[in-house]
Every structure is written in structure tokens, then in C-alpha cells.
Backbone:
């Protein structure tokens, strides 16, 4: 987390002592997120980019998503605390639109627990970079290409245009809607200690594993899709299926042979094999 959440000696800031059973602001054992409030904030997260602009990016969207929680502040929607908090949450903010829900949950809890405004502002600013970087790697660089390759594979095995579109939309939306829901709940649960959620294995290691799966999907999907695109019939006949299976296996072999076999020799061997097959056939 940012330096302002650490003591000068580098150790984590100790939670402030509280009387009774009330926990310190922003700690994990705070107020529960009711089903109604969670649903309201979640639905608003789907429209977080509705007021996007070049000046404050998704800042207005964050304020819009946090607003249902701010109604719990003393004085309600007519009170000064509500107006001040809403204004504070409607300024510049830049993050991945899906993982922004993590910030929304954490900021909503901080406002409800009436954490010091200066601390909320520093925390809000510190979230932009990590949420943007992690979200881009997980969604744009990993999940979206993987879903596209699944759709391409559906096309290659003979799926209709409707099946390809619906398959892509179903898979992609299951991922991003689930990510938004998890992020909102995790943000509220961890509050100002939301760095714990950013260390989740899916966020840290998901892009690498999804990338490996995408490589295999690409090896299966591309030959089948090209075969169908050039007018080949019966995509599940032995030849196109064989090429689709051999391609990812060949990719794995090339990785294993890295440093022990030159690329041009491997390509030359494959060309010779194709020529031999054409002559024999």
C-alpha cells in the first residue's frame, strides 16, 4: 500500500484503538454490506463509464456508484456530510472499469465509517495505478483474447454465426460480471486494507495461466477456422483435426527445443513432410 499507510519506520500502521466491539475504520471486521445496498451499487457499476470524459475520466461514475452508501451518513441526502462525501468521490479517477468496483466498495465503506477526508483522498489517489495495471493485464490482455479464441474455435468446428456470437458473449460476460461482483464485495470487506484483495491469486497469476490456455486454444482454433474459411467441408475430418491437434503440440516442442534446434531447420523439416505427404497422396 502507499507510504502514507505505513509508519515512518516502514512497518504497517497499527489500527487505532476503539472502545467496545466497534472496529477501527477501514478494517476487515466492519459493517456488513446489505443485499439491497450491494445490488444497487453493483447495478450502478455496470454504468460506471456512462459519464466518462477527458477531464475526470470515470470520476463521476465512481461518485454515482458510491452514492447509495452515502445515504447512510448522518443527516441523509440533505445533510452536509452526504454532499461533502459525494463531491469528494466525484473528482478525477482512472482505473480499469471492471476492477473499479474494488475501489468503490472500499471507498463506500470508508465514507460510511467517516474516515478522515484527507486519508480518503490519499487512498483514492493511490488506487488508480494498481487497479488500472492489474485490470488491463487480466481482462484486456488475457480474458478477452481467450474468449475470442473460443469463439473462433466454435466457428472452426462448424458452429453457426449465432452460436459463435452467443458463445463469446456468454463466456466473456460470465467472467467480467463475476469479477465486478467479487471486487465490490472484497472492497467493502477489506476497506482501507484493500491491498490484501489485490494480492488474490487470480489477479496476480491469472493472466499467465489464461495466456497458456489461449496458446493452446489458438493452436486448435486457427487451423480449423482457416480450413472452414477457404471453403473446406466437414471440419472434423481427420486432416483438419490432425493439423489442429499437431499445431499446439508443435508449439510446445519448439519451446522445449529452444536453444537446441534452429528454427529454420524445424521449418524445413515440416515443409519436407508436407511435400512428401502431397506426393504420396
Residues:
Amino acid at each position: 500500500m502507499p507510504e502514507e499507510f505505513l509508519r515512518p519506520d516502514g512497518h504497517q500502521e497499527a489500527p487505532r484503538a476503539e472502545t467496545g466491539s466497534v472496529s477501527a475504520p477501514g478494517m476487515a471486521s466492519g459493517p456488513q454490506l446489505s443485499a439491497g445496498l450491494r445490488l444497487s451499487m453493483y447495478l450502478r457499476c455496470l454504468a460506471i463509464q456512462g459519464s466518462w470524459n477527458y477531464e475526470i475520466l470515470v470520476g463521476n461514475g465512481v461518485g454515482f456508484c458510491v452514492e447509495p452508501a452515502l445515504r447512510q451518513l448522518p443527516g441523509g441526502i440533505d445533510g452536509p456530510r452526504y454532499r461533502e462525501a459525494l463531491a469528494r468521490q466525484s473528482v478525477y479517477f482512472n482505473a480499469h472499469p471492471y476492477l473499479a468496483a474494488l475501489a468503490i466498495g472500499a471507498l463506500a465503506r470508508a465514507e460510511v465509517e467517516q474516515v478522515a477526508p484527507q486519508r480518503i483522498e490519499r487512498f483514492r489517489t493511490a488506487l488508480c495505478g494498481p487497479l488500472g495495471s492489474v485490470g488491463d493485464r487480466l481482462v484486456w490482455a488475457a480474458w478477452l483474447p481467450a474468449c475470442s479464441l473460443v469463439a473462433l474455435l466454435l466457428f472452426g468446428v462448424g458452429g453457426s454465426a449465432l452460436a459463435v456470437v452467443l458463445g463469446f458473449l456468454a463466456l466473456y460476460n460470465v467472467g467480467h460480471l463475476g469479477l465486478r461482483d467479487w471486487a465490490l464485495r472484497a472492497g467493502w470487506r477489506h476497506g482501507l486494507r484493500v491491498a490484501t484483495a489485490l494480492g488474490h491469486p487470480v489477479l496476480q497469476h491469472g493472466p499467465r495461466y489464461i495466456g497458456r490456455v489461449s496458446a493452446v486454444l489458438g493452436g486448435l482454433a486457427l487451423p480449423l477456422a482457416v480450413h472452414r474459411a477457404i471453403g473446406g467441408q466437414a471440419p472434423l475430418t481427420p486432416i483438419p483435426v490432425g493439423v489442429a491437434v499437431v499445431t499446439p503440440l508443435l508449439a510446445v516442442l519448439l519451446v522445449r527445443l529452444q536453444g537446441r534446434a534452429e528454427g529454420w531447420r524445424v521449418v524445413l523439416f515440416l515443409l519436407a513432410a508436407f511435400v512428401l505427404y502431397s506426393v504420396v497422396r
